[in-house]
From TrEMBL:
Family classification: Belongs to the RNA polymerase beta chain family.
EC number assigned by the record: 2.7.7.6
GO biological process, one term: DNA-templated transcription
Range of residues in the leader sequence: 1-29
GO cellular component, one term: DNA-directed RNA polymerase complex
Entry annotated with the keyword Membrane: no
Boundaries of every RNA polymerase Rpb2 domain copy: 46-107, 134-204
Molecular function, one GO term: DNA-directed RNA polymerase activity
SUPFAM superfamilies per the UniProt record, alphabetical: beta and beta-prime subunits of DNA dependent RNA-polymerase (SSF64484)
Matches recorded under InterPro entries: DNA-dir_RNA_pol_su2, RNA_pol_Rpb2_4, RNA_pol_Rpb2_5
Name used for this protein in its record: DNA-directed RNA polymerase
Amino acid sequence: SRQELGPLWPVYPLVLILLLSSNSSRSGGLESLEENAHSQTPCTKVFVNGVWMGVHRDPANLVKTIKKLRRKDDISPKVSVVRDIREKELRLYTDAGRVCRPLFIIENQQLVLQKKHIKWLNDRYNDEGEEYKWEHLVKGGVVELLDAEEEETVMISMTPEDLENSRLQQSGIDPTANDGDFDPAARLRAGINSHTWTHCEIHPSMI
């Protein structure tokens, strides 16, 4: 809804922008935006498929809202959102031809994926007897599809083990204290990113 997304100048319904961006005019409204832009106003430019659509005063909340809508299947899971803080730009991509790959979503240092999801996949039905497929992991906010642009803005754990090591380190426990055979590079990687994981790689056998 417009209330969730906050003010976007000029005010366009964001869902309309996302659905019709491939057919939108590259000139309609763009010149007036340039003429009326206030350089002293702390705003972030919003682009859809490379076309400047407006500006937003709360880009962090806008990104959060778009991702929330995407994970609830309210908008297409293949919509990509990239925030460039340095350039003060927020770029949305809805065009065809982008290569997207699935990643597990991590929230509060925990995989959203649970054993019940795996059981439902194996059984092909959930507990309510409804058909359950891989696509339901995406629609349910368990798996996220990211293209190359958005992938550059997230932190990806290579394995669930790295994620577990990060949780242990946050608790003050050294996960390698009693392990004589470990990879120092892997330990360092987990330590550096212990507070920043947002996604986890999916083993090819699960796809």
